[in-house]
Amino acid sequence: PPRSTLFPYTTLFRSASSTRALPVLRRARGWPVMPPLGLLEVQPEAQLEFPPANGANGACARLRLTNVAGTLVAYKVKATAPKSYVIKPSSGSIRKGEHAEVQIVRRPPEDEQQKSAGDKKQERRPDRFLLQAALVDSDEKKLLLHAAHRGKTSGAAKFWDGVPKEAVEERQLTAHVPLEPAENGDVAATAATADRKSTRLNS
Questions:
Q1: Which of helix, strand or coil describes residue 130?
Q2: Contacts of 189 (CB under 8 A, 6+ apart)
Q3: Residue 115 φ then ψ, to 5°
Q4: Is the peptide bond before 89 cis (omega within 30 degrees of 0)?
Q5: Residue 139's beta-bridge partner residues?
Q6: CA 45 to mean position of chain CA atoms
Q7: How far apart are CA 39 and CA 171, in angstroms?
Q8: Contact, 70 vs 64, CB < 8 A?
Q9: Which pLDDT band, with edges at 50, 70 and 90, does 80 fall under?
Q10: What is the pLDDT of residues 47-74, one digit of tens each?
Q11: CA–CA separation, 2 vs 10, rounded Å?
Q12: Are 77 and 64 in contact (CB under 8 A)?
C-alpha cells in the first residue's frame, strides 16, 4: 500500500533535524495552545458571570467540574489577572463520575492595583481563566497529588511538570463583570460631552 496509507499523520510532524520549525501558537500571558478539554464537563462552558460587588466581599462566580473520564483526573485553574481574583481551590483531583466546585472571587476594586490614567482610557479586555486537566494514570502521580492534598505544594508542581504538554487538555473561559457605578457615570458623562460637541458643530 502507499506510504500515506501506512503513515497518515506523518505530514503533521517534523523531526528535530528539520530546518523549518513549526510555529508555536500562544495565548494570553504565554499560554500555549493544547488539546481541547474532554476529560471534564464544565459548567458554565465559556463565560463566568460575576454579579455586582457586594461591599468588601467582592463578587463570586462558581465553576462546576464533572469527571467524564474513566479514571482519576487532575485539574488546575489560573487567571490572566491573578491579583484581581481568588480561586478556591485552584487545583485538585476528581474521581470518575464525581464533581468538584471551584469558587472564583473577584476582589473589590479598591483592593486591585491602581491603574494609570492612560490605562483607564483604553478599552478594557475581559479577564480570562485557563482550566487545564490531565489523567492521573500511575501510582507515582497519585502519590504526588496525595502529597499536594496534605499541603505540600511541591507535590502538585511535580505532578504537572511530569505531564507531557500534549497530554494536558484545556478550556479557556472569559469573565463578564458589570460596570461599577462610577464607571457607568464616566460612560454617561463621556456620551453627554460627545452630544454637546456634536450639537455645536451642527449649529
A1: strand
A2: none
A3: -100, 155
A4: yes
A5: none
A6: 12
A7: 11
A8: no
A9: very high
A10: 999 987 666 667 899 999 999 998 999 9
A11: 13
A12: no
- pLDDT at residue 149 in the model: 80
Q: Which three cell numbers stand for residue 185?
A: 457615570
Adjacency order of strands within the sheet including 47-49: 47-49, 169-176, 128-135, 73-79, 91-94
Cα atoms in the 13 Å half-sphere on the side-chain side of 62: 4
pLDDT digits 0-9 by tens, 105-136: 998 866 455 444 434 534 568 899 999 999 99
List Cα–Cα distances, 78 to 89, 102, 104, in angstroms. 10, 11, 10
Distance between CA 31 and CA 26 in Å, rounded? 6
Distance from CA of residue 69 to its chain's centroid? Answer: 21
Specify the pLDDT at position 152.
Answer: 73
**How large is the average pLDDT for residues 160-184?**
82
Task: Taking residues 96-101, report their average pLDDT.
Answer: 96
Half-sphere exposure of 100 (CA within 13 A, CB side): 21
List phi, psi (to 5°) of 123: -65, 130
Between 153-161 and 139-149, two packed helices, what is the crossing angle to 10 degrees?
Answer: 150
Q: How far apart are CA 14 and CA 51, in angstroms?
A: 48
